[in-house]
Amino acid sequence: MPTQPAEPAWTVPADDRAPLESVRFHGLKSGPKLLVLGAVHGNETCGPNAIARIIEDCRSGRLLIARGEVTFVPVANPKAYRQNTREGDRNLNRDMYERPQPVDNEDRIGRRLTALLREHDMLLDVHSFRGEGVPFVFFGPENNAGELEPFRHDAAELALAACLGVPVAIHGWLDNYVKIIAARKRLKLPPLAVTEGYGTTEFMRFSGGYAVTLECGEHTDPASTEVGYAAIRNTLGHLGLIDAAPPPSALDTIIHMTDVVICETEGDVAEGGWKTGDAVPKGAVLARRTDGSTVTAPSDGFIIFPSKTAKPGEPLYHFGVTSQRKP
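Above: the chain's sequence. Below: its structure in token form.
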């Protein structure tokens, strides 16, 4: 594969009023409608870089969209991307819904993104992360008619997660977000709403489609662009938008997030050098409280998103166990 460009492969106007840019390819045969997003968080440039290469492949004929439609939004948050920051005014991947009266940058973008999400059948949202760790993918719940996240495409969504070429898949995000809300209430901290756990993938499920969030690797690692590029190509083949053999699953670990441990006071900190996806044995010390007490793994499992910078009311880490779900 080609190497990552030395500079970001997509440019945006230096104006907060600039429109979102999308590129859409329409196959000449019927098929599904895929949306691919990059730079929902502005300092995660692997998405724009990978998408730019895929667009060039499509324009040159190296890739031929034979059926269905694919829409690329290389930079979903231009202000944050231009600033090379995670956020413009706030986290775009939280509290996403259509606001009749937008008040900030992410509100205004969200109005357009939610309309795009409603137009499509499935979403691949390309991200990266701080620190070391293996690439992984977030996917959603099993089919259910519950109040929190009703859903009816669990098999198709897990199959999409499995095709991307990464070794780890994780589910259970929104259930754990409800636990964060409860912990903040117990600590008498400013409340959060369940909708604040909603981002692009949750909105796509709410709209009747299915979606995954791909975490390609560390922000500045050139390999992250390679992971994103391969995942987009795999998705196009998996969905039949291009004529390519369906890629085999690369998943070897599926994790069900089951708990979250919250920073309760300043000085609480995640322990050790754990990384997302690391297997931890029962009793392993995962966090240390300000008073010197420790928080340990309740069973054999996995640590997810450990944080040494968590503030009171924020997660020190999430905990998960081996999932019973199979692709």
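The chain has two domains: 23-251, 257-322.
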